[in-house]
Amino acid sequence: MQETSEGRSMRAALVREAAGPLLMEEVTLAPPRPTEVLVRVVASGVCHTDMLVRNQGYTTPLPMILGHEGSGIVEAIGTDVTTIAIGDHVVMTYMSCGLCDTCESGHPAHCEHMGPLNFGGGRLDGSSGATDAEGHVMHDHFFGQSAFAEYA
User: Fold this and answer.
1) 73-129: per-residue pLDDT in tens?
2) Phi, psi (degrees; rounded to nearest 5) at 102
3) Closest CA to 96 of 70, 71, 124
4) Which of 59, 77, 83, 139 is the most buried (most CB within 10 A)?
5) Which residues on adjacent β-strands are paired with residue 60?
């Protein structure tokens, strides 16, 4: 794996077309933004939801790096991250915005942006953190993590 100012080269399992195979490909993952963390994935479960998305039972943009039951070790943190440190062992979970009324009232599982954040294929602003070897956008942030990769 090679790291540059543009990101980190890594292998990831992704699906390019509905009902297509999971393909192992080299992708580049951008460095973490101020509120993001970079996790070296140690393990990831395979869930039926991953296969539903692969088969487009849940419509998501493709190509997509799947995986949403990941765990690993934090290797980098964004400048605004204060509650997680490099070296922490973590279990990743669904994404919530932390800013909507529901999140601020202590109910992040009912985040007003749950759908776009977990199934939208990118960040809430629509951007993605991953590109393939040709520079094409690879949808990521599946459940906030896309854990079928060396890094999430």
Assistant:
1) 999 999 999 999 999 999 999 999 999 999 999 999 999 999 999 999 999 898 999
2) -65, -45
3) 124
4) 139
5) none
**Residue 137 one-letter amino acid:** V
- Give the 3-state secondary structure of residue 148: coil
- For residue 89, give Cα distances in angstroms to 69, 113, 135, 152: 14, 27, 31, 13
Classify residue 139 by its DSSP letter: B
Instruction: List the CATH number of the domain containing 133.
Output: 3.90.180.10
Would residue 151 count as lying in a domain?
Answer: no
Contact 64, 14 (CB under 8 A): yes
The domain in which residue 91 lies consists of: 3-144
Closest CA to 27 of 118, 105, 140: 140
Residue among 6, 5, 33, 1 at smallest CA distance from 141? 33
